[in-house]
Amino acid sequence: MRIVIPIFDGITALDAIGPYEVLSRLPGATVIFAGHAQGPVHTDNGMLKLLADVPFEQAGDLDALIVPGGFGTRALLSDERMLSWLRKAHEQARWTTSVCTGSLLLAAAGILTGKEATTHWLEMETLAKLGARPVPRRVVEAGDGIVTAAGVSAGIDMALTLADAIAGPEVAQAIQLAIEYDPQPPFEAGSPRTAPTPIVERVRRAAARRS
Amino acid sequence: MRIVIPIFDGITALDAIGPYEVLSRLPGATVIFAGHAQGPVHTDNGMLKLLADVPFEQAGDLDALIVPGGFGTRALLSDERMLSWLRKAHEQARWTTSVCTGSLLLAAAGILTGKEATTHWLEMETLAKLGARPVPRRVVEAGDGIVTAAGVSAGIDMALTLADAIAGPEVAQAIQLAIEYDPQPPFEAGSPRTAPTPIVERVRRAAARRS
């Protein structure tokens, strides 16, 4: 089971590391981090560097593609090198998945045209403009092995769903227990449907300032 | 607000990246990744490399220390260089925190002696042997700014608790919403108290084989 995760400057680290932490624990799994070049990529805030093992085109055969998001995706929506590689990877992979604004890259590559998909709650309109049919769920299965997840932390739930589909519920539950994923958030503010309105507006304004 | 996260070979990536993703979003926060040397560290499964910015001793002043875990902690329980640095960092920091088996390092450094603390559910006895008083909760606040979290994914809940204590509930909720932390695990198997017994035994056996 070869799992390839493309990483890039401006990535949101948890988008990639959540699914990595789950899926690397599948029996026989190998996770490869691919980048525009071998070497470090800087996360969205510049405070962390992850190392890409290989350039995209040398990532080799793959069973699953996991596309993370982050502000860095904006510059990549017209990066024909990356979009072309995503199309080829999707054709080969049994599973094509994304976390957060990673789905914008899949959509820009034409992979989500007319399909149900999700993304970070702030970017649902962008996803629609790129041809997908946004659905406000945490994990959206569109058929043909295409699975998209909502913002950042949703990649953990998506990966457990995928672990179940790939290796069955016992393996998925064992992974959940191994990473002690028994979430107890101190607030009920993780979705625009549950967060207090002033908090939603605050996050919306902060994102607008960054755009 | 300077937040220092020590990283090391054999680290569990999500232990570090969960809190990083939350706390890097605090207003004015800087996160520094420190290692035995500047350069790459390999995660527990060898599939990912994170870059350390500086050696421990050059991490500089800090307000918060976050110690992640992973199988790599075992070799570090007698690493006097690291334990000595942890003691100094703890003396200076307002907050001394850990995720998963990171608490074993804090305990080995003498920081948790006689104090309530938690760790990965498989390592509670080890934590007791190192002088702490294990408490089976997801996030344990021992006073004096010492906060420990249970296994791997618990670092996200711990960091949101910390964000609340540092910057108040509005900021913490805004961060929770920004990372869309509205967890919906597909199974109720994230704790030995909720997982089916055969799953608990399976994970226990797998860990014993690795020891």
Please describe what this structure looks like.
The structure is a homodimer of 211-residue chains. Chain A has helices spanning 13-23, 73-76, 80-92, 102-108, 124-129, 154-167, 169-178, 197-210, and strands spanning 2-6, 30-35, 39-42, 49-52, 54-55, 64-67, 95-99, 116-117, 133-134, 139-143, 146-149. The first copy, chain A, is of the alpha/beta class. Chain A has two domains: 2-180, Rossmann fold (3-Layer(aba) Sandwich); 185-211, no CATH class. The first copy, chain A, has a seven-stranded mixed beta sheet with strand order 5-2-1-6-7-11-10, sandwiched between helices. A two-stranded antiparallel ribbon of chain A has the order 3-4. In chain A, α5 (124-129) links the parallel β8 (116-117) and β9. In chain A, α1 runs parallel beside α6 (154-167) and α6 runs antiparallel to α7 (169-178). Chain A is globular. The model of chain A has no long low-confidence stretch (mean pLDDT 97). At the A-B interface, α1, β2, β4, α6 and α7 of A face α1, β2, β4, α6 and α7 of B.
Annotated CATH homologous superfamily of the largest domain in chain A: Class I glutamine amidotransferase (GATase) domain
Count the E strands of chain A: 11
Mean pLDDT of chain A: 97
Oligomer kind: homodimer
Range of strand content of chain A? 15-25%
Which short descriptors sum up this protein?
homodimer; 211 residues; alpha/beta; Rossmann fold; 2 domains; two-stranded antiparallel ribbon; globular
